[in-house]
Amino acid sequence: MFSTSKTFHIIGGGISGLSAAKFIRQKHKNARIIIYEAAAHLGGRCFSFYDHKLQRNIDNATHAVLGANSEVKKLLTNEKFYKKIFFRKDKQIHSRFWQEVPFILLSIFNTQPKQIAKSLLMSLACKLFPFLPAQRKIYFSQGDLTEKLIAPLSGFANEVKTGWKLQSFTSVEDKINKLKFNQGEIELSKDDIVISALDAHQYQQIFNGPQFKFNQITDIYFRTSVPLTLPNNIPFLGSPDNLADWIFINQDIVAVTISDSQDIKLSDEELARFVWQEVRSVNGLTPAFLPPYRVLKHKRATIRQDEKNQILRPKSAQTQYQNLFLCGDWTMKDYPCCLEGAIQSGKRVSHYV
Ligand SMILES: Cc1cc2nc3c(=O)[nH]c(=O)nc-3n(C[C@H](O)[C@H](O)[C@H](O)COP(=O)(O)OP(=O)(O)OC[C@H]3O[C@@H](n4cnc5c(N)ncnc54)[C@H](O)[C@@H]3O)c2cc1C
After folding, report:
1. Most CB contacts within 10 A, which of 11, 186, 296, 316?
2. Best probe residue, ligand 1, of 338, 344, 345 (max atoms within 8 Å of C-beta)
3. In order of start, what are the domains of the chain with their CATH numbers?
4. Is the pTM of the predicted complex or chain greater than 0.85?
5. Residue whose CA is closest, atom 33 of ligand 1?
6. pLDDT below 50 — which residues of the chain?
7. d(CA 13, CA 146)
């Protein structure tokens, strides 16, 4: 029953590709699994790194995880999930979750609430029903995405080839027979399986996949001379009235997230100055000198999760090629594009192979 001969070639070492390796390993104990990753590191859109300007470890983007995200939670068993979410509206701080549903939807889907595909809203509502407080608990990363989420998933492949970028492929009839990377070509045996764990844009470019529209997320990190606190020492704050949607405190790092941010036409410095004033105003402080900052703009943070894109998302992990299967956050039609969807997609693809 367990295959020994076939090799699973996973293209993309983000959280979905790494999860695919894990779930395939559970099913095919002796299989050979190779991950090919274009970048020099694993993690894709989810990783942390040492920022030389700030002289701190930061995440490529602060990631928040809800208690409802069961697969991500398995990786975060020792981590603190906060029970309450605080918001600042009309200059008042409150924790009435239900009042801020449109703002929360914007954060979950990285898409304006009115544009979000109805079927996605329905499936989210069904998954969260009966909306227990435990499902609304929240965790946020603190410069430790690689350590907390990527490292535990990294040991399931026999080989990880970083710096290997897939450029094209060839096929015979309905089977892929050769993968062409920047570092060389891989001939496939007849039983070999290819799993695309590529982001939607790269999948479109290489495999002629659907053409999606994407939304940007901008993250801004400030390193303060003394740790800044939010009112009542809360660790993070949602601000529906502000440009800075979320403010997260991690010792002397203040991290700000702005969803659906492609229409903001400010330079990095203008944006950092503007957002820094908002951060200071939360505490009633007058704007002070701009501390060292880092602005990270992710143009294709997620696909826009609207009706047009929803139709384009694949119905299953199968493709027109017999030996090519799909995973990746964008491939899970019933999930928002997020870490949970990415892991679930890795699990799903293991059922097909
Ligand atoms: C700014 C930002 C904020 C986010 N915030 C949250 C959040 O708060 N909560 C949450 O749950 N999710 C959040 N997400 C979404 C989450 O990061 C993604 O859903 C998840 O990381 C997607 O994983 P993936 O493996 O599907 O795709 P990716 O991480 O994109 O992985 C694809 C991999 O393929 C590699 N690759 C690309 N082209 C090639 C090629 N030709 N050959 C080989 N390899 C290739 C890439 O380098 C990458 O490693 C956020 C994302 C961003 C960008």
Report:
1. 11
2. 338
3. 7-42+154-211+308-352 (3.50.50.60), 48-144+214-303 (3.90.660.10)
4. yes
5. 12
6. 1-3
7. 12
